[in-house]
Amino acid sequence: MNTSAAAAGAQAAPAYLQIVDVVKDFGGGAVAVNHVSVDIAKGEIFALLGSSGCGKTTLLRMLAGFETPTSGRIILDGQDLAGLPPYLRPINMMFQSYALFPHLTVWDNIAFGLRRDGMPADQVTERVEAMLKLVQLGKFAKRKPHQLSGGQQQRVALARSLAKRPQLLLLDEPLGALDKKLREETQIELVNIVEQVGVTCVMVTHDQEEAMTMASRIAVMSEGRILQVGAPSDIYETPATRFVADFIGNVNLMDGTLAIDEPDHVVIDCTDCRHYVGHGITGTLGMPVTVALRPEKVHLSRRKPADEFNTARGTIREMSYFGSFTVYHVELPSGARLKVSEANIQRHRDDALTWGDEVWAHWSRASQVVLTQ
Amino acid sequence: MSTLLQRLIAALRGRGAVIGVPYLWLLVFFLLPFLIVLRISLSEMDGVQFKDLFSYADGVLQMAVKLANYVFIVEDDLYIATYLSSLKYAAVTTALCLAIGYPFAYFMARARPTLQPALLMLVMLPFWTSFLLRVYAWKGLLGEGGWVADILIALGIDQVLAASGLIPSEGKFMNSPFSLVLGMTYTYLPFMILPLYANLAKMDLRLLEAAADLGTTPFKAFWLITVPLSKAGIIAGSMLVFIPCVGEFVIPELLGGPQTLMIGRVLWDEFFSNNDWPMASAVAVVMILLIIVPLAVFNRYQAEAAEARR
Q1: pLDDT tens for residues B260-289?
Q2: A250-371 architecture in CATH?
Q3: Are residues B246 and B121 in the same domain?
Q4: Is B119 found in the same domain as B52?
Q5: Taking the domains of chain A in order of start, what are their residue ranges?
Q6: Which chain A residues have a beta carbon less than 8 Å from that of B229?
Q7: Rounded to 5 degrees, what are φ and ψ at A199?
Q8: What region does A351 belong to: left with phi over 0, alpha with psi -120 to 50, or beta?
């Protein structure tokens, strides 16, 4: 599953950036990046997603040239980047918390890279003006970074990293320093700008929402390895491993054994329920498997459903109201908790479910993912 | 009246007291003595007594301000030359301290974190021995047969120094501009290194990565990023070296010579050899003004910069 998802992504377009079996070992036991290979197509926004310490930032820093791989190759548009110092790479990076030069104005910050290339002054002016227009900061050209808000600083950083028209743009936690509301607005704006410029982009984030909204493909990383590569919907709906299922979004993981194995369906016996899964899997009868079930795919009712499969009885023990939806924690007979999220379609329902209610949970035959890893 | 007193007491508690104590200290032990010196510099001598600035007799209040000392300082070439010479030696010392101290502070700030306390200790180690003894030791090191002198002669450096007039003749290092500047640079170097180190150590190194990322070689990034961002440290260090150097007395006395006029020594002579206190006081007041004016301008500039930042 893992390799097939990665391969499916790689087939999409010819590779523009190739990361080939890259290892980074800082010594002292832990390997920061452990045999990572991935191909990224031209024009793609590719996200490296993982919790802190998973090696995503180290991988990004190797692309920028701040770290040297212990082994492996990084090839950009056919050119091996090995031995090329950061200042000679056709790659620009937008740093986490931006690293804007505090002693220079917005204008000079954006012009900084262009001047180092010895670009004639009139062309520098033209390019900087274009960049200021792109990020809508024309009015702020003469300000110093500390006179700008967080969102404005972020846009200056973006303009600075795009000014040299890099072949590859790296974004290190691009929106991490912004508050939630601003982050949501900026995500879309950032994608629009990057797509307008047409630059290939690798971003690092620990925020799955950010990765899902912005990236065309996501690589989920853990302990220096890439666990799964795929489009956001692939990663969410078809996680390859228990870790990925658990890491992305909310999930109910139920351990069980394979009871019926037919080409078009399987049945899995778990402690509290019997799963009928509407597709075949590769496995042998009696093998232990894990069923992953997203909370929003489960429905609650007070009446017993007709279906003997895909249903479980329980008591509501916890409720978390989020406005647009409510998450219920249903205690099943074995004591396990099933998370269920229900959209709040009506206002103030009279028969609303509440603490202590006995309920039946049920879900469709196409809602589960069977994990064998 | 009582409310005023209460307010005064309230103001002196907490923050007021913390700020007030050093203010009071400086008022009593710096500002008042300075005013006394200022008064003496304007006084007429009456035997061994200073005449009062104000006298009242027969219903006439008279104020007698004697400006002759100041006029004399301005008109006398020797005083002006001495002031200029003091400023020159202080400036040269500051420049040398910066040239030596900046690389030192830079590499100290970039050294392994475990090594930094030890390096910092080495910078401060000289303070454990009296400043006077350390300056005195240079007499031995640079005098005839001193091993520093021997090394300089062996390397032929004395010929260069003698040719450029920094030492009186080949092989003689003492009591020359060379020995004076060497002594002052040696003494004041830590005062340059410490503020520079404090400034460079807190610099955000990602800015250098950002510069490299945008196509800047490390050498250029140093001049375009590190140096401008350490401006506050450079200014603070330079002030800490320049100001005491202008009025320095001990080092010119021990290591300087007939060529090296410094205002500190002139002051000493006026006070203790000539016993002309009003004149000596006038010399001191002019020196303080010479230092305070650029300092005030600098402070104003800093305050404006801070205001702009808000």
Answers
A1: 889 988 888 888 888 888 889 999 999 888
A2: Beta Barrel (2.40)
A3: yes
A4: no
A5: 1-90+200-248, 250-371
A6: 102-103
A7: -90, 145
A8: alpha
Q: Which chain A positions have a beta carbon within 8 Å of B204's beta carbon?
A: 99
The span from the CA of A128 to the CA of A24, in Å, is: 37
Please, which residues have CB within 8 angstroms of residue B175's CB and are 6 or more apart in sequence?
Answer: B168, B255, B256, B257, B258, B260
Q: How many CA atoms within 13 Å lie on the side-chain side of B133?
A: 5
In a domain, B43, yes or no: yes
Predicted pLDDT of residue A2: 42
Pairing mode of beta strands A311-321, A325-331: antiparallel
Residues B201-247: tens digit of each pLDDT: 999 999 999 999 999 999 999 999 999 999 889 988 998 999 899 98
List the 128-187 stretch of B: residues with Cβ below 8 A of A: none
Is residue B238 situated within a structural domain? yes
Q: Is the CB of B203 inside 8 Å of chain A's CB atoms?
A: no
What is the structure's pLDDT at B308?
A: 58
Contact A87 B216 (CB under 8 A): yes
Would the CB atoms of B212 and A101 count as touching at under 8 Å? no
Of A99, A146, A164, the CB nearest to B210: A99
Give the structural domain span for B215.
76-275
In a domain, B288, yes or no: no
- Judge if ipTM > 0.90: no
User: Chain A contacts of B220, Cβ < 8 Å?
Assistant: 116
Nearest to B228 among A93, A103, A113 (CB): A103
Whether A101 and B207 lie within 8 Å, measured CB to CB: yes
Q: Are residues B252 and B117 in the same domain?
A: yes
pLDDT, one tens digit per residue, over B66-124 is: 888 898 888 888 888 999 999 999 999 999 999 999 999 999 999 999 999 999 999 99
Residue B91 belongs to some domain of the structure: yes
Query: Is there a contact between A19 and A203 (Cβ–Cβ < 8 Å)?
Result: no
Alpha-carbon distance values, B198 to B233, B234, B297 (Å): 8, 11, 24
**Residue contact B215–A116, C-beta within 8 A:** yes
Residue B129: which CATH number?
A: 1.10.3720.10
Its pTM stands at 0.80
Tally the domains of chain B.
Answer: 2
Among B209, B215, B216, whose Cβ lies nearest the Cβ of A99? B209
Provide the number of CB pairs (under 8 Å) joining chain A to chain B.
Answer: 57
CATH architecture classification, A1-90+200-248: 3-Layer(aba) Sandwich (3.40)
Residue type, A133: K
Task: Express each pLDDT in A333-356 by its tens digit.
Answer: 998 899 999 998 888 777 788 888
- One-character DSSP codes across B19-82: HHHHHHHHIIIIIHHHHHHHHHHTPPEETTEEPPSEEEETTEEEE----HHHHHHHH-HHHHHH
What DSSP designation does B224 have? Answer: I
Question: Mean pLDDT score of chain B, rounded to an integer?
Answer: 87
Q: Are A46 and A202 in contact (CB under 8 A)?
A: yes
Over the stretch A165-217, which tens digit does the pLDDT of each residue have?
Answer: 999 999 999 888 788 888 888 888 889 998 888 999 999 999 888 899 999 99
One domain, residues B119 and B238: yes
